[in-house]
Amino acid sequence: TFEIISKHGDHEQVVFCNDPHVGLKAIIAIHNTSLGPALGGTRMWNYKNEDEALVDVLRLSKGMTYKAAASGLNLGGGKAVIIGDPKTQKSEGLFRAFGQFVNSLNGKYITAEDVGTSVQDMEHIYMETPWVTGIPKDFGGSGDPSPYTAHGVLMGIKASAKEKFGTDSLKGIHIAVQGLGNVGSNLVKYLVEEGAVITVADIDMNRTKSVADKFGAKAVSSDDILFTECDILAPCALGAIVNDQTITKLKTKVIAGGANNVLAEARHGDQLKELGILYAPDYVINAGGLMNVFVELEGYSPERAFEKTKRVYDNILKVYEIAKRDGIGTHTAADRLAEERINTIGRLKQRH
Ligand code: NAD
User: Fold this and answer.
1) What is the side-by-side order of every strand in the sheet holding 174-178?
2) Pair 98, 172 in one domain
3) Same domain for 151 and 278?
4) Whether 114 and 157 share a structural domain
5) How would you classify the pairing of strands 76-83 and 174-178?
């Protein structure tokens, strides 16, 4: 186990949670707390085996350290996984038992929703520990993060337009949005307000049609959206859309959207640089949801959360500065921004 841990990063602590009475098998990974408590969601997934779950939680928790650090938040990176089928194996007891394990860490790890967990599950965790965000609004929580994620993405798109086209006005700029779920549909609404020209697609054709009709956007098929000739491509569906098959067929000048893991591999980021396509790194541009739960820790206010998502604009510009300074791809520059902040500010904090 220690071998697997050291292969996937220099994690501070990994906690195995076991409660056979409620069928709980979970792993909490705390990657780094130099900037603050480790925040990251709890994923419930039918992992093939325990090693697969361990690798996933190690990888995801490290990602959260970078996301929080590059976003200027005083948070570290953590994540949890519950091994089990989210469709059949959930119960109040399971999440309350898990909540007790979270509580035992005394705030060093703060949890939230993720794939396979819901607001209802967070409510059950909250019955055992205060160290949970994304709880329902009637409990003082922040509710659905996607409008905040989408607003952060809008800010990142504007910063990218500034970098590439010299102005952050989106008036008349052609933006292709892939995926019209929680993030994508909110983003389209904001883009319309900015006067952008929009093309949209979802694999759900009814959704594509209803969003296109509502906002006066052009609808295309989900096979064509990535290859639409446009100024900015905003991926808001699944990951790995920039891969060996797609990369040379892209007809955009900028990629800036809400989806996670946009690059199939890091080398595709280098290739985008060579092709002259500006890439807004996923974990920096889609941090609005994380900013929203961060505000929940301070005592939630929707207005302040909305204000905070405006920081994405400066964060993205900082990434572009580092990329130019060091002559590297923007995906590498994002990691460098995070590491520089952990090293300087993290060290300062240790003095106290
Ligand atoms: P969602 O499930 O609500 O929406 C995704 C949409 O994409 C669905 O409508 C789906 O039909 C569509 N889709 C899937 N494959 C497609 C394809 N090939 N072409 C076109 N459309 C396709 O999810 P969401 O919450 O809107 O999240 C979207 C992305 O943003 C994900 O990658 C997610 O990890 C990321 N993200 C979301 C948040 C958030 O606050 N919700 C925060 C950070 C990152």
Assistant:
1) 218-219, 197-201, 174-178, 232-235, 254-255, 278-279
2) no
3) yes
4) no
5) unpaired
Is residue 295 included in any domain, yes or no? no
Q: What share of the chain is helix, strand, coil (3-state, %, to 5)?
A: 50, 15, 35
Q: Whose CA is nearest to atom 33 of ligand 1?
A: 259
How many domains is the chain partitioned into structurally?
Answer: 2
Atom of ligand 1 nearest to the CA of 148: 40
What is the complex's ipTM, to 2 decimals?
0.99
* Per-residue pLDDT at 13: 97
Q: Please name the residues in contact with 116: beta carbons below 8 A apart, sequence gap of 6 or more.
A: 43, 44, 45, 82, 86
> In the annotation, is 79 catalytic?
yes
Q: Quick one: average pLDDT of 44-67?
A: 96
pLDDT at 249: 98
User: Which amino acid is present at 87?
Assistant: K
The finding on whether 182 has its CB within 6 A of some atom of ligand 1 is yes
Q: Which residue range(s) make up the domain with 24? A: 2-62+76-136
Rounded to two decimals, what is the model's pTM? 0.94
